Amino acid sequence: MPFLALVAVAVTGLGTSANNQLVRAARLGDMPAMRRCFLDHKLANLDLNSALDAAAAYAHLSVVELLVAFGATDLDSALLSAAARDHVKVVAYLISEERPNPATNTRDAQVLAANLGAINADWLLTAHRWEERRS
Fold it and tell me: For the domain 3-134, what is the CATH code?
């Protein structure tokens, strides 16, 4: 990293903010770091939805479940991230009717999965949409 970039990071605090720490921990599936973020920072100051998107994109189901339990609400964006990368377990969790507010953009996620060759997510979402239409 060039010297000026390092100075900019040091001066602005980029890379060390609570949100950056939370998103990085979610992306890596680092549960101890997630817990530290929740203990060290007020929940209202944390961007749970960005962390949820990162966890879904990297298939960390336990982190996705934790973030939803703590109040992350943008399940539609997380669904697109998981479907694009064929993370079927995360997709199944996000669309599960057993949850109070499942993701609703299943059509968009299915089309995205189909276009990107995410075969398993495509099939799961197609079956889910078919069941929705039957009922």
Answer: 1.25.40.20
